[in-house]
Design a protein that fits this description.
Elements lengths: L1 H8 L5 H8 L3 H8 L5 H19 L6 H10 L6 H10 L40 E11 L2 E10 L4 E8 L4 H15 L6 E4 L3 H4 L1 H9 L3 E4 L9 H13 L9 H16 L13 H12 L1
Parallel strand pairs: 1-4, 4-5
Antiparallel strand pairs: 1-2, 2-3
């Protein structure tokens, strides 16, 4: 394994230095290098090629757990630690979340607010039982682009979203209308948001009332009360936004649309769903439920 490490990094560091650090002889390395490749080494190379393909298809976002899960789904059965070791040796990494956040909640208002009925119970036993929603921001050279999104806690699917250059009330209303048109929920759905003026407004609450939804709101300045939405936005920022520089809001809109509808909802493996995508999870569970 030491000789394999030296071979993998010989273009980055001097061979003699690596041999000294690893406690092996340079002559031993060159003797090893001249021998025929073993079956294990050939198998590792084949597996490495599959790992690189899965990692690239994930937009270079997957770490070893998701890469391993995807390989198994494709019928390539291998040891999880072996995948982790090969990825580490070849510097193949997933993306890590950052912690930057701009305040998007205006709770300094006199509008009525609802109690926290969700109470951090971020699971649902069927679609359209619990929705969570929030607003985040995307930086562009033209200024902020604001994104309002709604996530169904059953499958973590983004069921509604809207983007605009301001946080006007129409931003969240358009996201809600999209979710309603696509999902057509029955009465009694629990709708959870923060106490922002956009969500507490008379117009938005009237829309919820028309659909006979149950209203729930996070406590003031408590992001953990809506942790599922925080998680989605953190994933979006880590896997997409922080890797881009948007000159215009139109560029950001197109990128985010494609990420949500093509990748996140239909392809991205979610550890909380047993490494299925939201669409796969809904299809599987709907069969089980029916």
């Amino acid at each position: 394994m030491k000789f394999q490490f030296i071979e993998a990094h010989r273009d980055e560091f001097p061979v003699t230095r690596m041999c000294k650090v690893l406690g092996v002889s340079a002559s031993g390395y060159y003797a090893w290098r001249g021998r025929p490749e073993s079956q294990r080494e050939r198998d590792n190379q084949v597996l490495l090629d599959h790992i690189k393909a899965v990692h690239a298809a994930s937009r270079k976002t997957y770490g070893s757990p998701r890469v391993h899960a995807k390989l198994n789904k494709e019928g390539i059965h291998c040891n999880k630690k072996r995948v982790e070791r090969l990825m580490r040796m070849h510097h193949i990494r997933g993306k890590r979340r950052g912690r930057r956040r701009v305040k998007t909640t205006d709770s300094a208002h006199n509008l009525p607010v609802a109690p926290n009925l969700l109470n951090r119970q971020f699971e649902a036993d069927a679609p359209n039982r619990k929705w969570v929603t929030d607003i985040t921001y995307i930086p562009t050279d033209q200024g902020w682009l604001y994104l309002a999104a709604i996530v169904d806690l059953f499958s973590r699917r983004v069921v509604g979203w809207s983007m605009a250059s301001t946080m006007h009330g129409s931003l969240v209303r358009n996201a809600l209308r999209m979710a309603l048109a696509g999902r057509r929920p029955q009465a009694g759905l629990l709708h959870h948001s923060d106490q922002g003026s956009q969500y507490a407004s008379f117009v938005y609450q009237s829309l919820l009332g028309d659909q006979q939804m149950v209203v729930s709101m996070s406590r003031t300045a408590n992001c953990y009360d809506n942790a599922a939405m925080e998680s989605f936005f953190a994933t979006l920022k880590c896997e997409l936004v922080h890797e881009r520089h948007y000159r215009t809001r139109a560029e950001a809109r197109q990128d985010i649309f494609e990420y949500i509808e093509v990748f996140y909802n239909r392809q991205r493996l979610h550890s909380s769903l047993g490494y299925l995508s939201p669409e796969e999870y809904e299809q599987l569970r709907q069969v089980c439920i029916s």
